[in-house]
Structures are given as structure tokens and as C-alpha cells.
Amino acid sequence: MKRDDKQARQPRQVRRLSKRLDVARQLHDLEQDAALDIVDIERLRVSVTRSLWIFLAVGSVFTTTGVQDFLAGHLTPADPVWWGCWGVEPCLVGVLITVLRWEAAMIAREIEIGSKAVDWLKRFLLTCTLVMNVVPALWPREGGISAGMLAAHIMVPVLVFFLAEVMPIVQARCTQARRAVTLTKPQTSEPASPAPAPAVEPPASSVEAPAVVVPPPPAVPVEPSPTPVMPPTVATLPPVAPVETPAPAPAVELDGLGIPVAMQAQIRQLVADSPDPVTAADIQRATRLPLTIAARVVDRLTPVGANGYAH
For each of the chain's 311 residues, which pLDDT tens digit applies? Predict the structure, then answer.
């Protein structure tokens, strides 16, 4: 027995290659799934949004220093107003981002804003940030005007504004792309209502039905003719063929394959409703099972579909 087992056992390279082929087939089946596009879109949205948030935070820190310098003036840290000036720019940026997030949600649902108040609010917030950053650079309290600081105080507020406006658009477009992906739902057949039993006619009796003799028409005196007179026609009723009731479909054994009970019932219903032999592709389309397991299920169904009864 041990020698037979060693001879029947496959070589290591064959077993290793078989495992690799199984993994490749499973990966191929997963790559064909449309839900993978949703995963890729969501990963892209998270990555892009995270990067934009980082750059927006860095730009907001720079504009916050300009706004604090404009509002604080010659105050010192001993004055509470000096500390309160640090919260003005985060408040303006927070209001701007909140409005743009709401606008992005409406764009994703294809709802037109159609309100000038929203546009005026965004422009007002940008103007406030821009003015409070440019004025200290144009009229510095100490020293002369620095062209680099002036350009930075103009460029960074505008960049922060456009970053805050691009972020909701990115989220809205990713949401639209995710909703545009259509997933193939498994074909679930509803339980068929019990059909009424066919009316079975009584089988024909072994005794033939009596012949019905059609009486001839009344005789009319005519001249003798050389043609012979036809005998009266006799009509017989055709025998009624007995109606055979279809044999019940055999049960499909799916135990031992690791398939849930609900999915087994779905496969049995698919086999019962399909007029043609069920293939592995049909089972995979209806239950989303791997192709290898679907092929094993078809092997279980082959004896049933071949001759109409289980071996």
C-alpha cells in the first residue's frame, strides 16, 4: 500500500505549479469583478484628498501668520487680543471649506446651486485673507518692502483658495465615477408558484367505442346509373392516449464542497429552472463562487443532466 501511495503521489513541482495555477485563476476571477474599479477609485480619492489636505494646512499656517500680523499690530503676547488674532484665519478657512464641501455634495448629486450668495461668500472670504496678508507686506512696520514676501503673501492666499475649491470637486467627481460602475448582481430566481396539476383524462378502455352509423339520405328515385352506390360511412372515435405525469427531478447532492446551505438552495433552484444543462459559468454568475468550486459542482450535476436520474 505504501508503494502504491508513493507512486500515485504527484511530484513536488507539479503540486507547486498546480497551486500557482489555482492562485492565478482566483486572481483572474477577482480582476474581472467590477467592484475592483470601485476599490481603485476609492483609493485614489483618499490619496488625493490626503495630499490636498496637507498642502492646504501648510498654506493656511502661512496665511494665518499674515492675518495675525495685520490684526495684532503693536500688541504683545501679554494682551489677550494678540492670542485671539491667531484664530481669525482658521475661522475664515473653516467657513470656506465647509461651504465648498456642501457645494461638492450638490455637484455629486447633479443639483444646481443657482445662488449668487454662495459665490459672493467665497469671494468675500478670499478677499479678506488676501487683503490682510498683502497690507503688512506693502507697509511693513520695520524695514522696507520685500518683493519676495509681497509675492508670497499674494500667491499663498490665492493658492489656498483654489486648493479649497479643488478638493470638493475631486471628491464629487470620484463619487460620480464610483456610482457609474455597474455591478453584476447574481441572478436570483424567485420561487416558482406551484403550477396546477394537469388534468389527466381517463385512459382509453380496451373495449373499442361502438361504431356510429350515419343513416343514408332518403332515397330519391333516379334513373339507373352505371356507377355503383357507395355504402354508408362509418365514423369511429380515435383512441385517447394516456397522459404520463413527469417524474420528479432528483435531488442534487452538494455536501462536502464547503458551500453554504442558502447557496446550495440557490444552485438547486438554478438547475430546476434551467431547461439546458447548467455550466460552471452559469453557476459562477449566479453565486459568485470561484471557478474551481463551480466546476466541481458541475461534476456533481453531470450524472443528473446526462440521463435524467442520479447514479
Answer: 455 555 567 888 888 888 888 888 887 777 677 777 888 888 888 899 889 888 888 888 888 988 988 888 888 888 888 899 999 988 988 898 888 888 878 877 778 888 889 889 988 988 898 999 888 888 887 777 788 888 888 898 888 888 877 887 888 888 888 887 776 654 544 444 544 555 545 444 444 444 445 555 555 554 554 555 555 544 455 555 555 554 444 556 676 666 777 777 878 888 888 887 888 788 877 777 777 777 878 877 765 444 444 44
Show me where the domains of the chain are located.
35-180, 261-307
User: What is the b/e burial string over 38-48, where b = at least 16 CB atoms within 10 angstroms of the residue's CB?
Assistant: beebeeebeee
Looking at residue 115, the DSSP 8-state letter turns out to be -
Taking a C-beta distance cutoff of 8 angstroms, is the pair 122, 100 a contact? yes
**DSSP element (H, E) containing 147:** helix 147-180
Query: Are the beta carbons of 68 and 81 closer than 8 angstroms?
Result: no
pTM higher than 0.90, yes or no?
no
Question: Considering Cα of 53, then 55, then 60, then 61, what sign does the dihedral take?
Answer: positive
Q: What distances in angstroms separate CA 173 from CA 47, 170, 261, 294, one per listed residue?
A: 14, 5, 41, 38
